[in-house]
Amino acid sequence: MSMRETPSAGPAPAPAPRPVPRSVRDSDRASRTGSAASEARFDALVAEAEAVSVDGWDFSWFEGRATEQRPSWGYARAMADRMARAEAALDIQTGGGEVLASVPVLPPLTVATESWPPNVARATTLLHPRGAVVVADADEPPLPFGDEAFDLVVSRHPVTTWWEEIARVLRPGGTYFSQQVGPASVFELVEYFLGPQPAGTRTARDPQRARAGAEAAGLDVVDLREERLRVEFLDIGAVVHFLRKVIWMVPGFTVDAYLPRLRSLHRRIEAEGPFVAHSTRFLIEARMPHRT
């Protein structure tokens, strides 16, 4: 018996493609179109945020882009009340002078210090017409003033508080009044870009450390309060502007360096809504005792 060979017919023909339902085609097209539109929005928002100036401490650009709860104690109002009763006042690390310029009645002698040249110029423009002097200072000891020069020293969000210098320039009975950034402030955003931070970093600005520093310098702490406040970033442009302005949050931040994370966060905000973080603030008031 012989086996009859059957000629090879080659590869089997591919089956005819099934038609893709219109609903699937439309969904895929919409997805691609939506993705392209989202990328275009990302590019536009980032470009706008990179173009805006970060000079000074004017946060009006965030209107409609980000929100932050304010501490219940109303620092600017409380500071203005103390300014109205002072004879000689010093505002340390004034930024662009915006908070000090909002005070209705300044003391007869009012001085502000600032280290960043663009802010020095901005503060000078705002404060000179009010009779206040702006001094360029490196924000490191010593303060460029004599002993017991002021009966009021204020500072909003200082990077570092040099307690010995504050005690030196305060007159007996004088007051230091300050709102400061507390521990792990906006760390939801910080850790999104940098990953989990060590415990020492998270607790670095503990208000109890401020109390200890003030008391070690010879001051009596008469008020110390802390609050945790909700922050919402409504679009990626607000995130970019915030990190460009508050440079110590993500040191060395640039859009190029964090582009993949920014794109991912943009998609998250568009899909889920605002990125929520929490700031921490504390208020400290300390007095130099009268001589006995």
What does this structure look like?
Helices cover 37% and strands 22% of the residues. The chain contains 10 helices and 8 strands. The protein has an 8-stranded mixed sheet with strand order 1-7-8-6-5-2-3-4, sandwiched between helices. Helix 5 links the parallel strand 5 and strand 6. Helix 1 runs parallel beside helix 9. The longest helix has 30 residues. The radius of gyration is 29 Å and the shape is elongated. The N terminus is likely disordered.
Compact overview of the structure:
This protein has 292 residues and is an alpha/beta fold. The protein has helices at residues 22-51, 75-83, 98-101, 117-127, 163-169, 187-194, 199-202, 207-216, 236-245, 259-272, and strands at residues 66-68, 88-91, 109-114, 133-136, 150-156, 170-181, 220-233, 275-287. The radius of gyration is 29 Å and the shape is elongated.
Strand order, largest beta sheet? 1-7-8-6-5-2-3-4
Q: Please, what is the average pLDDT? A: 90
Number of helices: 10
Q: Count the beta strands.
A: 8
Shape: elongated
Which bin fits the share of residues in helices?
25-40%
